[in-house]
Amino acid sequence: MRIKLEEADKTSELEMHKEGDLRVALAVACLSETFIADAPVSFVIVAEYERTTRRYGDRGVRYVHIEVEHVGQNIYLQCESLGLATVAIGAFYDVEVARVLSLPEEHKPIYVMPVGVGAEEV
Asked: In a 3-state reduction of DSSP, which class is residue 122?
């Protein structure tokens, strides 16, 4: 499954990394936060530090975190505009999230952002 995102002069794509219903396993990896298992979709934002530190050295780690924050902010803004809810979760077992998603070794999970209707809407 691919989702094409288009802005004025650039196109980006989201690509499904792994098929299947991973919500319960992801919730367990996130310290058993059950609302993650209830969310219809979760975005897991990962970093490949080497891609940036190769060019910018240790300062690249900061740049990666800044970009992750921008992605998270955009997810929050889009959710708000659609009447949805999300929360950025950083409390999880890194190795377990990577295992659940079958992430390559160099991809490090930074945020898990479940998206759905807010609890007050249910």
From this structure: coil
Query: pLDDT tens for residues 27-82?
Result: 999 999 999 999 999 999 999 999 999 999 999 999 999 999 999 999 999 999 99
- Distance CA(120)–CA(122), nearest Å, equals 6
Two tokens, residue 4 = 């094409």
Name 113's bridge partners: 43
Return the structure tokens found at 60: 């690249």
Which residue segments constitute the domains of the chain, with CATH numbers given?
A: 2-115 (3.40.109.10)
Q: Contact at 8 Å (CB) between 14 and 2?
A: yes
CB-based contact 86:114 (threshold 8 Å): yes
Residue type, 41: V
83 Cβ contact list (under 8 Å, min separation 6): 117, 121
Which residue's entry shows tokens 């952002």?
Answer: 113
